[in-house]
């Protein structure tokens, strides 16, 4: 499972970079892949990292709408950039990647928040993703 953990971390970093630079995440992903192929010091981009980033890219608007709707007291723009992108990645994997157990998605997102964000972020991330987990069946049904 360490490979999946690393893949999620890299996917988060790609989403974060795209957000910071104001660039599409697929462009950032392509840059990472190109760099990994041309510079042996760069780690390769795993298949799962690509799946997460590409999957997120197909659901970006829906994910941002959900986060804005269910983040009580927070607008998407006001959220710390790190938290926003951890939540984006977690929401994608939670709602649309059936192979990953919900508990794993929540735990991994909380771990990313612990590693990269503030002391308050893990509980914020856990709370918002927990709410989406509870609503998951209706969220997927609403999309059909």
List the helices and strands and how they pair.
Elements (H helix, E strand, L loop, with lengths): L1 H20 L3 H14 L8 H24 L10 H16 L5 H15 L4 H23 L1
Helix pairs in contact: 1-2, 1-3, 1-4, 3-4, 4-5, 4-6, 5-6
Describe what this molecule looks like in 3D.
The protein has 144 residues and is an all-alpha fold. The protein is built from six helices and no strands. It has helices spanning 2-21, 25-38, 47-70, 81-96, 102-116, 121-143. The chain is globular. The mean pLDDT is 95.
> What percent of the residues sit in helical stretches (DSSP H or I)?
over 70%
Helix/strand/pairing category: mainly alpha
Largest beta-sheet characterization: none
C-alpha termini separation: 32 Å
SS strand fraction: under 5%
Number of strands: 0
Estimate the global geometry from the Cα principal axes.
globular
* SSE order, one letter for each helix or strand: HHHHHH
- Mean of the pLDDT scores? 95
Radius of gyration: 15 Å
Number of helices: 6
Q: Uncertain segments of ≥5 residues (pLDDT<50)?
A: none
Characteristics of this structure?
single chain, about 140 residues, mainly alpha, 6 helices, globular
Brief characterization of the structure:
This protein is an all-alpha fold and 144 residues long. It is built from six helices and no strands. The radius of gyration is 15 Å and the shape is globular.
